[in-house]
Specification:
By secondary structure, the chain is mainly beta. It has 1 helix and 11 strands, in the order E-E-E-E-E-E-E-E-E-H-E-E. Strands 2, 4, 5, 6, 9, 10 and 11 form a 7-stranded mixed beta sheet that branches. A 4-stranded antiparallel beta sheet has the order 1-3-8-7, with no helix packed on it.
Length: 120
């Protein structure tokens, strides 16, 4: 079984920052990144990074969030700055193939989710 384990979620005031971490049980995913789902909303891509370092971001987080990867540690990170109430959601680590990255398709592997709550 492939496992993705997230950490770093929590409660923060608007304007604050959090950093999410995800560690995978295997290496060499073509793409790793983050999706989120708010209550009553569809799950959406937040940010992802492929094996060459190319990134994709949801439009509303550009300039505020940064995704990075440490291949040696099988890990992906999401630095979230200038958080606002609309960022409140469960954030899920996701991993898959390089083809998933180019086709804007979620990877096959998901973490359990970590709650991010931003208070006004």
């Amino acid at each position: 079984q492939v496992q993705l384990v997230e950490s770093g979620g929590g409660l923060v005031q608007a304007g604050g920052s959090l950093r999410l971490s995800c560690v995978a049980s295997i290496n060499n995913f073509g793409v790793m990144g983050w999706y989120r789902q708010a209550p009553g909303k569809q799950r959406e891509l937040v940010a992802r990074i492929d094996s060459r370092g190319s990134t994709k971001y949801e439009e509303s987080v550009k300039g505020r969030f940064t995704v990075s990867r440490d291949r040696a540690k099988n890990s992906v990170y999401l630095q979230m700055n200038s958080l606002n109430v609309e960022d409140t959601a469960v954030y899920y680590c996701n991993a898959g193939s390089l083809g998933d990255f180019f086709r804007d398709r979620p990877g096959n592997y998901w973490g359990q989710g970590t709650q991010v709550t931003v208070s006004s």
